């Protein structure tokens, strides 16, 4: 295995960057990884995704959610090299400092591979699906290649965590239409930018975001890691998605308890 020391080397965040995240609840950071490190994970994660998604349904036979991406969870349990990325102290340190908490646990990871010709990812807020007591959550969105606008990079409505409307919607055609209409009458800036090699974004659970279609002939390969405050407690689920997440990602944890199951280790 090639040298992966960068995974655990601290990343220097400035006060301005932390303040930016606090205000807008998203940030894009350059040079989090180098091209060599990304190339290693591109190869390993791509191989695992292909293995686990051996017989994909044709795009034309899928709904909007299904056309948005191939979605596979907790690859850290499937491969020791992928586990090195998910357990990276460099990433977990960034998550901890941006949220201004004492440390973070893993909620879960997921590969989000948007196929050539894949459709949009509708407007949504991730925390709709999470039975978590506070908003101290953050997702690292890690493109495994340069991601131009034509590939469908992540887009943000900066500061939209303040909006309550739309929080009750799962990812769907309805969420795309309803949230887009709501955001049109606000002053929150819509951020649509490409991602350079090594650039990683971080966004909170309640900030609204989406992604465009992949109009290229190449797969848009992204790995994501969802972190939560290490002291996060489980709340009563308020929808079927949260009930499913409790059963799947927080096994054995009771309502009101710290989420410290074997699937939720402290990473920093």
From TrEMBL:
The keyword Transcription does not apply. This is Ectoine hydroxylase-related dioxygenase, phytanoyl-CoA dioxygenase (PhyH) family. Its cofactor is Fe(2+). It comes from Maribacter orientalis. InterPro entries: Phytyl_CoA_dOase-like (IPR008775). Keywords: Dioxygenase, Oxidoreductase. The keyword tRNA processing does not apply. One of its GO terms (molecular function) is iron ion binding.
